[in-house]
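User: Can you help me understand a structure? I only have the sequence.
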Amino acid sequence: MGGRNVTTSTVGGKPLGRTELRRIDAWWRAANYLSVGQIYLMGNPLLREPLRPEHVKPRLLGHWGTTPGLNFVYAHLNRAIVARDLDMIYVMGPGHGGPGPVASGWLEGTYSEVYPDVSQDLAGMRRLFRQFSFPGGIPSHVAPETPGSIHEGGELGYSLSHAYGASFDNPDLVVAAVVGDGEAETGPLAASWHSNKFVDPRRDGAVLPILHLNGYKIANPTVLARISPDELDALMRGYGHAPYVVEGSDPDEMHQAFAATLDHCLDEIGDIQHEARTARRQPVARRPWPMIVLRSPKGWTGPEEIDGHRVEGSWRSHQVPFANAREDDAHRAVLEEWMRSYKPEELFTDDGAPVPDIAALHPVGERRMSANPHANGGRLLHGLDMPNFRDHAVEVESPGTGAVEATRVLGGFLRDVMAANMDRFRLFSPDENNSNRLQDVLDVTERTWNAETLPDDDHLAVDGRVMEILSEHTCEGWLEGYLLTGRHGLFSCYEAFIHVVDSMFNQHAKWLKATNEIGWRRPIASLNYLLTSHVWRQDHNGFSHQDPGFVDHVVNKTADVIRIYLPPDANTLLSVADHCLRSRQYVNVVVAGKQPALQYLTMDEAVVHCAKGIGIWEWASTHPDREPDVVIGCAGDVPTMEALAAVDLLREFFPDLAIRFVNVVDLMRLQDEREHPHGLSHADFDALFTRDKPVVFAYHGYPVLIHRLTYRRHNHANIHVRGYKEEGTTTTPFDMTVLNQLDRFDLAMDVIERVPHLETVGGAVRGLLQDKLVEHRMYVRAHGEDMPEVRDWQWQRGGGPEVVTADPEQNAPEG
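Assistant: Let's start by predicting it. Here is the structure, written out as tokens:
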């Protein structure tokens, strides 16, 4: 079925002989047949009898429109892999074309290898059809369940950044990345075209973008399909690509044109890499990388018309071209005619297996795109060669003293990690690596850059390993692609702007959850976020840069996947970072400040404290031999300092007050053990926070999250949380805490208000504390800086830190 138009192609020639042309077309027809069957059928898979209502699914779900184009490309890539012995994976931006790669994986035999019940026979084909978008079956997108996939495509915009991430440090890999024309309208995709300026053709693989223009989204035309060919050509050339166009709908002509174009592009890629890898003078000038613009009809090879309405080549073919095939005899007849047009009797044996011609087209073993190890990155994962983080320990002679930039200390450790792992570890940051104090990494590598370089530029090189582009989306996509193909990395970002990738994090977390339940998927390195330049030290940038809410978003994901750490000082940050870089199959969020701050724990105590995740700081508590009158808890570097300063005030005014000081590094320790693997039992939580005493908790982010994590606890009614409450401006560091009532004076007043015996004796002290807030306000308005007693405050109590937990014999949480 389908109309005809003139085939045009930038590259001429007819490289396919009669046998190759027949095999490619047979593969394409078989993949299309299997794709339609997945959308529509639950019985009678090879149409051995006329279609009856019970053969058609009661609920028709899926997307047909983009699928035949994806199948077309897949068939041609297979031919190229066999001819050139390519190591290639396939990233499909229009992931809603899920029937296609499932069909291709089944034709290649991989699907039956990982799912033996979906065998290459009639029974297996029936299961293949029935399971698609069916209760208890598989999703309609290119999901983790799909062999060969590293990119689901349920959310559009990330195909190119994932593809380039996969190519970094993979010199022999070619990543074919289909960009849908709807996807091409997204901001993340538009930025990711610039990824070619960050490729080193000597040591990286290659990405071949294939912009698939079929004209329509769900109901609207697509922008790039409706601009002039000259404008599109100029756009792609402006992005640094050499575009080659293939357009038409006649199958034989399109097969020849696409094969010629694909050969030409692969030859160009080979020339670019050969030139770079053999040139005496390095680096060589950057050349435009080839790309393909494929124009084909939406719903190609589908019904031309249904009920008097155009279908093939229109928006009506985007999802299910017609939805009444079960109830409507006429529609069911169209479906049968459509499926028979692919001539299944030529494609499958009587037993339902692919005929030998189809098997002869695809590569074998790990050269199959559905079985390529890069698409199951855990198979290729090698652990990092980890230096000893203790070598970077900060000396702490007395707790609560010093002025150390925690992330700068971390930068020294990451430098050593980078130096030891120059083939499998990279840093990703949207132009913030130095701002976040990680510049020591530049002692051993440069920033990746393959565009023009000027004499005054700082640490730019083609072979750099610090990935900086002012696009959080692109950094996230690069890192995800890098991790999914078996490598390691870390993404540092200003805390307020990590929200830009909220939905990307969502997709990756869902991917991890799904792969945890798929036996043949191997664990990959964790996605590590370092959030710094955080809310409490964005006083100079102001309100726009003040938002700690990413953690709230992360907590929504499944407990098996997410981990959240708020190390209070440099030594705890080092311990947490070492743990995160060694971990697998998690999203680790680490929040740490970059400004000079007090230090609390020696390295030995920091390691113990981080292993436990939560503990009582005896040195910061008063009368530890007694049951506490109040518990002061904290999580985060600035909240820890303000909570300690509040203790300092309270012990001065009320020397008999028994205060227990609890610091939290692993935020999920607050949750019930039934809800999170790191959660404390009720008994352990009560041992820390008591069952009936007031708790004043100073928290880095929005207070409601602490209530959410602790709402099941016996003492929840007595927990009072101070944190960020959306008050901010350009002001002093301490004034930020005052605006949000997280400051030491407000925390001390909270204690006075909540400890029963202080209500009658604390009035005068409360008045003094209120006076200090007035004094502070007047001082900062007059001097533009915090009062010296606040600015220079340090913990003055003697003795070294002693950290204990609710149960010292308890094992540290795994993961």
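Now, to help you interpret it: The first helix runs from residue 18 to 40. The chain has 26 helices and 24 strands. Let me know which part you'd like to focus on.
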